[in-house]
Amino acid sequence: MSYAMSNSPTGPFTKLDKVLAQDPAVAKGSGHNSVINVPGTDTWYILYHRRPLAESDGNHRQLAYDRMTFNADGTIPRITMRVKDNFADNNALGWKTYGGAWSTSGGRYVAGNSLGGKAQLDTNFGDFSYDADVTVTSGGGDAGLTFRVSNAASGTDSYNGYYAGISPAGRVVLGRAANNWTQLGTANLTVTAGTSYHLRVTAIGSSIKVYVDDLTNPKISVTDGTFAAGGDGLRVFNAAATFDNVVVGAPVGAGVNVAQGRPATGSAACAASEGPEKAVNGSVSGGNSDKFCSSVAGAWLQVDLGSTKSISRFELAHAQAGGEAASMNTKAFTISVSNDGTTWTQAVNVTANTAATTTHPVSGVSGRYVRLNVGTPTQTTEVATRIYELRVFS
User: Fold this and answer.
1) Residue 40: CB atoms within 10 Å
2) Nearest one of 236, 319, 237 to 279, comparing CA atoms
3) Taking a C-beta distance cutoff of 8 angstroms, is the pair 324, 350 a contact?
4) Confidence class of residue 288 from pLDDT cuts 50, 70 and 90?
5) How far is CA 62 from CA 1, 50, 55, 325, in A?
6) Which residue, 231, 213, 255, 275, is CA-closest to 122?
7) In this predicted model, what pLDDT tens digit does every residue of 62-91 receive, in sequence order?
8) Is the N or the C terminus of the chain less surrounded, counting Cβ atoms within 10 Å?
């Protein structure tokens, strides 16, 4: 679903971007939307349908809604499809179970004691953070999160993917399944039956980290690249458990580039293949295929982080980082942050850069929106701004 803008209600209109698009990690077939406003506020929501990834029936649609925001210049950041379930409606729509006994009660997803019962979402995340509240209610085994899963079936280890769980036996465990079990890591942890614990798994490439309550220091950190992407779910093994507040999304936490893959807008690009999205795609491969380029005086680039983040540093990969001449590196620029896309606070001011990549540590800085404003685009009279990557670290 795209949108266009004009200075006149009769046009001409200029198509700018998509407001809503399918997400290969979340859902396809997004569209047929409505927009509502909370009366007396500037709070907006978009309601739309979307279709599960594995569903081939074009008429199989699920209703979804997300927050809709507007930038100060009237442009609309792309909607981010969410994967969230707090089971407050006491249903488990969207979940498919494989073995075990699953039900909803009291605003939680309840799993009876079984040897490997699973409940899976139809998602396909590669890099992500996956959060959930897990309570082991009985049994000496464990309960937790499955991720990067494919080929799920009933049976203890009948799936390809990973699992991280907690046990009243006093441990947190991480392992890999492929119709058998390979333990990848374990750590001592006091777990009391009937007490809720917040689990987070952050996976970026082959790096997998498991957190329990303390979301700064991982309990387990391993490197394993056997499975690159797949579905997310829940599992019990020789235990009964309840689950709540499931959230799957872009990676979060210290050392994570929270701008990667986020919706980006900017001044007019030099070419269609050099749009702002190239500055947040997580790669610097060189050439015109992987940079944001704009010849507009006062070029700008803006990224919507999705929610307000505490920020520890910014990084910019300039022209030379992408294989171009050092004389094309951005000379003067500022970086500002905003919570609402309207009121901005300058966090970085550079007047005489020559480096290919610049790092800008900050303190006490937070915001949902990050905006790069370019004053002098190059070291010469060349007018085109070249940004190969804008990174923002929480």
Assistant:
1) 6
2) 319
3) no
4) low
5) 17, 5, 11, 50
6) 231
7) 899 998 888 778 888 888 888 999 999 999
8) N
